Amino acid sequence: MTDSPTPTDYFAGDPRSNHERMLAGDLYISDDPTILEAQKTAVRLAARFLAVYDQDPDEGQVVARQLFGHLDETAFVRAPVHVDYGSRITIGPRTFVNMGLTALDVAEIRIGADCQIGPHVQLLTPTHPVEPQPRRDKLEAARPITIEDNVWLGGGAIICPGVTIGENSVIGAGAVVTRDVPANSVAVGNPARVIRTI
Question: Is 128 a catalytic residue?
Fold first, then answer.
């Protein structure tokens, strides 16, 4: 019987905690107690948001403002939402977020003013190594997502890590956006491609 290989110490010489590495956008492993507690808090607040929203959508916004890092007083979010932390999400004035948002905010997610976020949109900041062994060893990282002002994300659109959607742009329903979209553009498809300017 052969011995199992010695695990690689990916963080040799790095005194930071995994939580600190996560916040810096570096590779980390999500076994840090601070990370786990923040995730539990987000689950509890998202569940509370749904429960309160079901009774009174306006009162639900009070809970949503506890869940998100910043939710402008004039913005409105429909329940349910699914987040990693919530605290790394900023939503600007007069923005409307339809039901079923999945926003994995390992890195920051910034949504500007006057945006329309369709139902079941996914904003996905996490990344994983392509190489098999580091992925098997549970390494991950994340890249921020920015949705600039007056963007419309059609239902079911998926925005991938590190993407910025420029102001006034429209992303078609079901599009998978893997790279930045310039301002004043319409992008559709998988992978999303700009088909015209506005």
Answer: yes
